[in-house]
Amino acid sequence: MFKTLANQRVLLLVTRGAPRVRGLATQGSSPSFAARPITPAVLHLKTGQSFVGKAFGSPKSIFGETVFSTSITSYTESMTDPSYRGQILVFTTPMIGNYGVPQNTTPIDSQDVGVVLESQGIQCSAVVVADLAERFSHHKAVESLHSWCVRHGVPGITGVDTRAITRILRDQGTTLGRLAIGADASLPAPEVAEYWDPTTENLVDQVSVREPYTLNPEGDIRIAVLDFGAKANIMRSLVRRGASVTVLPWNHDFNSIRDQFDGLFLSNGPGDPKHCMEAALKLRKTFEEWDKPVFGICMGHQVIGMAAGLEAYRMTFGNRGHNQPVLALASSGSIKAGRVYVTSQNHQYALKLQDPFPNGWEPFFINCNDSSVEGIKSTADSGRKVWGVQFHPESAGGPLDTIEMFTDFLAECRNHKERSKIFDSATIDAEPNHSFL
């Protein structure tokens, strides 16, 4: 036992000038990782703390917004979520990489959308882990987390105390950071003015599709998706329920083509929702002139709120993880008022709770931890069928407590389509027949 402990490789952690030693749990080494020389890495936070560790992944230095996720599994899904664009992602789970990375391709048909994960590549700017698993084991894994990060040009740091980093972010709020790799690790921490804030840029425009495309064209109802940075499991959840899905750029003029569709879906996405005001103003016109169902999640939820007249604000901490409890304030479809649902979340911004709420709208969910708005919906007397939720019903990863909201949305789209057919048929029958006049 003492020999094993003595042989543990250790890395120095520096925070607030106090040296500490951390032992790593992973004892084995894969040949690909062990063959690399140890490259120093330092995570600098704008608030003044620095954490020294060992680099993995791409050997480059980056700036970003430092955030943490409490999710225990699904690091591959988190890293490919476009909502993490521009962010240095800190995993609170001690060991990351133990089940490797799967092949990220699937067929494109009525069940799949071309990728296994949430997008084609890694979306976060960098990753921070306490202990990188140098060996992985999973029947679907084809490469290690380290080699995956190398291929996608994403740096990482391991051997740091992610508990200490998380407490700083929890106490002081999300902060900007700099991950310095190799020779850059020996340089002084950046000056405050040198830190780059990704939220000053329109990150949605960076991750949204450029040209429309359609999935499952044989579906029985047609759904348009405004892509603010959509996770693949959103499209997957729609096509597996029989919908034909047309994915549109975030600022596409939906009103010019809206009559081709049976419903509108607004996806998740990264950054400040105020960059999407163009989409919110177009959506406001949609609400005024179009009565078909609309559903939005995460960024889409915030765009719906802004279109309704609510204000979005930046939260101190944000919510990121797979265990966020939300309380339903109203019943709708599979959702029952008074019940608490456990949800997957990834957001820094939220809608302000105000009294009175805009006419024709009501709160739908509220967060049980911080009382932030987790959902809004149109009222029964508004004549609209619109829902928005801050969390991810499709999860990937996370709990599936609210996955049936996709079924509810598509059921409303189908019902509206059938009612329209009946109304059109009745209108034709009621028209006078002048053929014999």
TrEMBL record:
GO CC field: cytoplasm
Pathway membership, UniProt: Amino-acid biosynthesis; L-arginine biosynthesis; carbamoyl phosphate from bicarbonate: step 1/1
EC number: 6.3.5.5
A matching Pfam family: GATase
InterPro entries per record: Anth_synth/Amidotransfase (IPR050472), CarbamoylP_synth_ssu (IPR006274), CarbamoylP_synth_ssu_N (IPR002474), CarbP_synth_ssu_N_sf (IPR036480), Class_I_gatase-like (IPR029062), CPSase_GATase1 (IPR035686), GATASE (IPR017926)
SMART domains according to UniProt: CPSase_sm_chain
Swiss-Prot/TrEMBL keywords: Amino-acid biosynthesis, Arginine biosynthesis, ATP-binding, Glutamine amidotransferase, Ligase, Nucleotide-binding
Gene Ontology MF, one: carbamoyl-phosphate synthase (glutamine-hydrolyzing) activity
Domain (Carbamoyl-phosphate synthase small subunit N-terminal): residue spans on this chain: 39-180
Catalytic activity field: hydrogencarbonate + L-glutamine + 2 ATP + H2O = carbamoyl phosphate + L-glutamate + 2 ADP + phosphate + 2 H(+); L-glutamine + H2O = L-glutamate + NH4(+)
Gene3D superfamilies in alphabetical order: 3.40.50.880, Carbamoyl-phosphate synthase small subunit, N-terminal domain
Subunit structure, interactors included: Heterodimer composed of 2 chains; the small (or glutamine) chain promotes the hydrolysis of glutamine to ammonia, which is used by the large (or ammonia) chain to synthesize carbamoyl phosphate.
Protein name listed in UniProt: Carbamoyl phosphate synthase arginine-specific small chain
Natural source organism: Serendipita vermifera MAFF 305830
